[in-house]
Amino acid sequence: MSVSDTVRLALPAEAVDVARIQRRAWAESGLLAAAGGGLPADEAARVWHEAIVKPPLAHLRVLVAIGEDGVVGFAVTGPSGDPDREERDGTIAEFVVDPRHRGAGHGSRLMNAAVDTLRQDGYEVATMWVRAADDGLRAFLVACGWAPDGAHQEIATADGAPGVKLVRLHTDIRAAS
């Protein structure tokens, strides 16, 4: 692990990197056209800039994983917005490691930092919605101690293509006593 291999809160200037990584990951998974293909890159960067400098919620945090090449991944943490969850349930709303930088430990560092951030914000359970077809991410989460909680949903796409099926995973993040 080098000095650059770390995770921290995103800086406003890194919004462009976050948008680029998100688009690259979406393109790799075939979601770009359905989820964000119509959003120009500069608009995506503007949206991420706003999330970093003026988050819509007090506990919304944008974290970045830093590698030798700069930003190599990001995560967004905050309160769970799911109606069946409790007040002490947080969520990891986004979790993306640049496809070109996977397998180098960035995902593990990013996950640990996201869970630590949720715990510091007072949450006791973490949830995360994952594409049902994303076997790699689900396997990673299960290896980290996450499990499906039985909730699922389908997100419609704007272009009329088949919806994206999601499953929710959760994990207890209370500090061991």
Describe this entry's structure for a reader.
The chain is α+β, with helices and mostly antiparallel strands. The protein has helices at residues 15-29, 32-36, 41-53, 106-120, 135-143, and strands at residues 6-9, 61-67, 70-79, 89-97, 125-131, 147-155, 164-172. It has a seven-stranded mixed beta sheet, sandwiched between helices. Strand 6 (147-155) and strand 7 (164-172) form a beta hairpin. Helix 1 crosses helix 3 (41-53). The mean pLDDT is 88.
List keywords for this structure.
177 residues
Low-confidence stretches: none
The strands making up the biggest β-sheet line up spatially as: 1-2-3-4-5-7-6
Tally of DSSP helical segments: 5
Structural class: alpha+beta
- Based on Cα principal axes, name the global outline: globular
Q: How far apart lie the N and C ends?
A: 30 Å
Strand content: 25-35%
Q: Strand-and-helix sequence, N→C?
A: EHHHEEEHEHEE
Q: On the 0-100 scale, what is the average pLDDT?
A: 88
Radius of gyration: 16 Å
Helical coverage, percent range: 25-40%
The total of beta strands comes to 7
| Major sheet details | 7 strands, mixed
